[in-house]
Amino acid sequence: MLDVSSARVVRCVVHRVGNRLREEGCELSHQEVRGTAELHGTLLRHYLAPLAKTGEEFELYHESDIALNAIRQFSSRIFSENDDFINLTQNIAKQLYAASVHPSVAAGEFIAILFHDVRIQGEPHFALGLYKIEQRETFLDVEKTGNSLNLVELSGIPVSNIQKGALILDNSFGVHVKESSGQQTKYWAEAFLKARPIQTEKSTAKLAAQFVKQVCSRIDVEAGVSLRRDLVDVFSANETLSFRDVEEVSERYLDRDAVSRLTHQLEEQSGFSSLATSAIDSAALTRQARNVLRQYPLGEGIGITISNPKARLDKCTISKTARGYRAIIDIDVETGE
Predict the structure, then answer these.
(1) If you placed Cys at 107, which of 18, 295, 329, 336 could pair as Cys (CB 3.0 to 4.6 Å)?
(2) CA–CA separation, 335 vs 269, rounded Å?
(3) 250-308 confidence digits (pLDDT tens)
(4) How far is Cα 167 from Cα 57, in angstroms, rounded to an integer?
């Protein structure tokens, strides 16, 4: 876990990076941002803390030699050669431009921030934050003209969420990556950073949630109700479980070969090996799979959602009628003593 309570902003620069496919080019700054204490506080709260706390763990890599990973090389020099910060971030911006060849990639501001005193096991470290802003937000301000107050519409960079962000650590060159929903494209982590996920209990839980969703989509409604009930029982009874435990519950409702194929597909997609023996934090898996476990499809485009965490659908019988469906549903609700 990263401790950013004592972190501070050392350097910050903004460049503008376009879409290479559309030949939009780059606008490179030659001066650092003249930050105030208030601005630095905003960057620490909204740009550093979310990456440190909720960013997914990745590692920089290269197929033949890690020394050929451009982002690793540039960030390594930034950590050791602070005086060349502007030039090195310009090179990183050019690297981002080279990776921006998908039609959906929008031009936007590229922000590089050097943080210090990010604590890892109590020791202070440098960390390099890289951010891409592709969408602006409209907000209102009040302007005084004579004796009147007027509303003025302005456009600015949102701080409420990180659209694309990466935090590179100087001790191991591990990377914490975060992308806002609806903005994910492969170019940020795969093409630009050239980073791949690290297998942790958290990342394994995310894959297990995908696995549960795919299994539920392959079985009928009544089997889906039973599977969800059995999974909730297993998750709640164990603080830690293995991916194989989730497979075994799923095999009660889906053919073992089909379950094995789903696991193999997830291994290939993630690059993780031996998923079956991987440990999973039950609480993390429950959070990741919450939507799947609480949404029950009853028919084509028809379903129910149980939002009460103490309630679960225990039995569901569906039959077709001349005008649609008839459902008989039993819902169990836990009662406090």
Answers:
(1) 18
(2) 42
(3) 999 999 999 999 999 998 888 787 788 888 988 889 888 888 888 887 777 777 888 88
(4) 10
